[in-house]
Amino acid sequence: MHASTTRRPKALRYSVALGACLGAAPAFAAGLGVGVEIPRLDVAEYHRPYVAVWLERADTTVASTLSVWYDVKLKNAEGTKWLKDMRQWWRRTGRDLALPIDGVTGATRPVGKHQLQFTEGTQPFARLPAGNYKLVVEAAREVGGRELVTIPFAWPAAKGEQLRAKGSSELGEVTLDLKP
């Protein structure tokens, strides 16, 4: 007697193989890559800056808050008290938000370059209607200054490209990688 084998119909074998190949293919979704540099400052008393990153429509309304860095570990949510020092973000949307926001708020960051990635259609980067927007990055530092850097862009991106802007005090280079 010969060994029992399970025979699958050819169509099923091929569809399973095709499905495995398609599942292994990378998904290419539109998105944004944001780079934020926190510069090293030569000051007597240094505190890490609070930073807000958001997208603004052409009429200056907020399309989406992408990231907010602040001292989340202070007792009694004391860190939220200083968010209003990021004046533009606070006036446009911050005061209306219930913080912390999962996936958006996080701890302050040290000196260096920090990368953020956002895929369209996933929180906090909702689907944007076609149009002109600005990436806005605002930083405010205790016993320090405040700075705002903007990068205008059109969405959806026609091609992959990197746009740059540079702060002069509280922020270093800010980059925006558009992914069609």
Q: Can you give me a brief rundown of this structure?
A:
The chain has 180 residues and is mostly beta strands. It has helices at 10-24, 87-92; strands at residues 31-38, 50-57, 62-69, 105-106, 112-119, 131-140, 146-155, 161-166, 173-179.
Order of H and E elements: HEEEHEEEEEE
> Within the largest sheet, what's the order of strands?
4-3-2-6-7
Averaging pLDDT over every residue, what do you get?
A: 88
Portion in strands: 35-45%
Description of the molecule:
The chain is mostly beta strands and 180 residues long. Helices cover 12% and strands 37% of the residues. A hairpin with a 5-residue loop joins strand 6 (131-140) and strand 7. The radius of gyration is 22 Å and the shape is globular. It starts with 9 loop residues before the first helix and ends with a strand.
List keywords for this structure.
180 residues; mainly beta; five-stranded mixed sheet; four-stranded antiparallel sheet; 2 helices; globular
Secondary-structure topology with pairs:
Elements: H1 10-24, E1 31-38, E2 50-57, E3 62-69, H2 87-92, E4 105-106, E5 112-119, E6 131-140, E7 146-155, E8 161-166, E9 173-179
